[in-house]
Amino acid sequence: MPIPFPKRKVSRAVAAEELAILERTYPHAVTALEYRTPFELLIAVILSAQCTDARVNLTTPRLFARYPDAEALARADQDDVEKIVKSCGFFRMKAKNIIAAARALVAEHGGAVPADRESLEALPGVGRKTANVVMSVAFEEAAFAVDTHVFRVSRRLGLTLATTPRGVEEDVTKLVPREKWRHAHHWLILHGREICKAPTPQCGRCPVTMCPSRKIVARYLALKNSAGPGRPSGVGGGARRRPRSS
Ligand code: SF4
User: In angstroms, rounded to a whole number, what is the distance separating the alpha carbons of residues 10 and 204?
Assistant: First the structure.
């Protein structure tokens, strides 16, 4: 059974304190994806669904050496692209989507990546999360992308009780000044990767001492240890839902 999330949101004051700690802890947080242009970022984000950024970074140099822009990728042979992106998982769908997205960029945007949500979400393989990442990272627009780390950490901190990425986005953006939305995304991702990890959060190393999950995690681990290997028993709470990737 996964670690339960808090059943109540923290107060606005506590949320502000939690977020201020994350901001101080990760002041220079940026995306881990390597890119040189909005086109490269868009393709890297599509490839990153259900895949690590490190794996994407190992894949994209070869892809972009062969297909450096939308015009080149729009003319690509799908089999060739599939071979290059194979290690990213779901490679057939991803190859199909990035070629189709490149064709749409050429046909509708002169080969450039649009900066607005509506145009981005109209591209094949691009959902709200991908659009938010491209808007916030490539164009420095106010957008807050919710990936699996942001979803989990926001709920553990009691910033939201939402069970969908869109709900988490709506709740957290009410707590963060608009000009910091794009940074808050990175604070939460980094915290999720480095300390508030999915299977076992490292609460002993965590600077967010007022986090409402601290006691929940301690109780969960105590039950798990007393039950021996396998699942802990007697831990309440609903099932944890993962956000859908875009
Ligand atoms: S105290 Fe534990 S559960 Fe809360 S944010 Fe820190 S690592 Fe995550």
Answer: 20
From the CA of 201, how far away is ligand 1's center (Å)?
6
Note the pLDDT tens digit of each residue in 182-225.
999 999 999 999 999 999 999 999 999 999 999 999 999 998 88
pLDDT at res. 245: 42
How do the domains of the chain map onto residue ranges? 38-112
Is residue 129 annotated as a catalytic residue, yes or no? yes
Is any atom of ligand 1 closer than 6 Å to the C-beta of 78? no
Ligand 1 in reach of 206 Cβ (< 6 A): yes
Give the predicted TM-score (pTM) of the model: 0.88
Q: What is 38-112's CATH number, 1.10.3720.10, 1.10.530.10, 2.40.128.280, 1.10.340.30?
A: 1.10.340.30
Question: Could you give the residue ranges of the DSSP H alpha helices within 91-231?
Answer: 91-109, 117-121, 128-133, 148-156, 165-175, 181-194, 213-227
